[in-house]
Structures are given as C-alpha cells and as structure tokens.
Design goal:
213 residues, alpha/beta, Rossmann fold, seven-stranded mixed β-sheet, 6 helices, 7 strands, globular
Length: 213
C-alpha cells in the first residue's frame, strides 16, 4: 500500500534491457502517470540478445520514455555473465541510495536464466532496508507464486508499446511464430484470471508495508 504522500520514488531493476517491460511496464507507467518518479537500473548491456549494446541501450531509452521513466541507470556488466558478487550488490546499493525508493521491483529468483537469478540475489541484499520489495515474472520465470496483482486493463497497450520499442527482441522468444507481445498478453490474461480482471501484472512480495490511518 502506497504511503500517504504526494509523490514517491519507484525503482525497477532488470538484468537486461526489456526484462522490466515484460514484468511490470504497465504498473510502472501507472505510477509515472500519477506523478511518481520512476527509475530503472539495467545491469548488463544486453549485447548477447542478437543486437549491439548501443542498439539495446537506445531501445531501452525509447521504452523508458514511453513508460514515463525519470532516469535509466546502467551498470554495463557482460550479458549472460552477470556475477553474483559484492560488486554488483554495491552497484545496486549506490542506485538505491541515490533514488531512495519506497517501492523496488526485481526479478524472481526462480528463473532459468542465470543473470536473472543473480540479479535477484544481489538486489535482495542491496534493498534490505527498503519497505516494499516485489518480485516480477518474465518469460523464463518458473514456479512463480504471486500474491499481489495490478489491474492493467487500461495499460496493456502501453506495455505493448514498451515491448515494441525493443524491436530487436520482439521475435526472440524461441517459440515459432510467437512474439514477445503474444507471450505478454497470454501472461496478462492468465494473471488477470486470478483476480477476476481481464488483464493483470502479478508480483510476489518480499516485503510490503501497510500504512493504516
């Protein structure tokens, strides 16, 4: 539950460009539209995703503008070789100290991609003093058990626009003739059914602080 202040800071952490979009672009855009400050921290340059690092960064910046993001922070670790190391924890901690977020969104640890798992583990350590930390899901997340849902009926098109901004990644799903948009819509429908909505983004809370009147 959001604190009763006019504006809050939100931070989403992703191992690669476009990870955050799949997991929580609609939710982040809603925060931004309400006047909150949304920040992204991308840990790798994404060059192993079939496009040069410079293109991946350009695509990420375009998507961030669609979301209404205030700033994108980059750590530039090598794609597919993100270390589970105290240097990554320290890098995330620097961004956390700069942004001072009330909410942080991070990868779930149950994932078949090693960068996602290590990003989660490092982020959990770096955000240990943040009151609200939520895990988001991606196409390679497994055994995800969400307990927080956001209705994105009026935000699905925004999520699609963000995903389309990553043009180099739209068809890189390893499923014949299925785009990342197809997968994102299927996930939104599936999660929406949990909370009796048409479309939803789902999260698993590490911590959530409820402020009662």
């Amino acid at each position: 539950m959001r604190p009763t202040v006019d504006k809050i800071n939100i931070l989403a952490i992703g191992a690669h460009p476009d990870d955050i979009e799949y997991g929580c672009a609609a939710t982040l855009s809603r925060f931004a539209e309400k006047g909150d400050n949304v920040y992204l921290h991308i840990l790798t340059d994404g060059r192993k995703g079939g496009a040069p690092a410079a293109r991946r960064k350009k695509e990420q910046e375009k998507s961030a503008a669609i979301m209404g993001v205030s700033e994108v922070f980059w750590s530039n670790y090598e794609d597919t070789k993100l270390p589970f190391h105290d240097t990554v924890i320290a890098d995330i901690q620097k961004v956390v100290d700069t942004v001072k977020p009330v909410f942080v969104f991070i990868h779930d640890a149950n994932d078949t991609h090693q960068d996602h798992r290590y990003a989660c583990d490092c982020a959990v350590s770096a955000t240990r003093f943040i009151p609200n930390v939520l895990f988001y899901e991606g196409p390679t997340t497994v055994h995800f058990g969400p307990n927080v849902f956001v209705n994105i009926y009026d935000r699905l098109n925004t999520k699609f626009r963000c995903l389309r901004a990553h043009r180099s990644q739209v068809m890189r799903t390893n499923i014949y003739n299925q785009s990342i948009l197809d997968l994102a819509k299927a996930t939104a429908i599936f999660r929406g059914e949990y909370c009796h909505q048409k479309y939803a983004e789902a999260f698993k809370s590490l911590r959530m602080m409820f402020l009662l009147p």
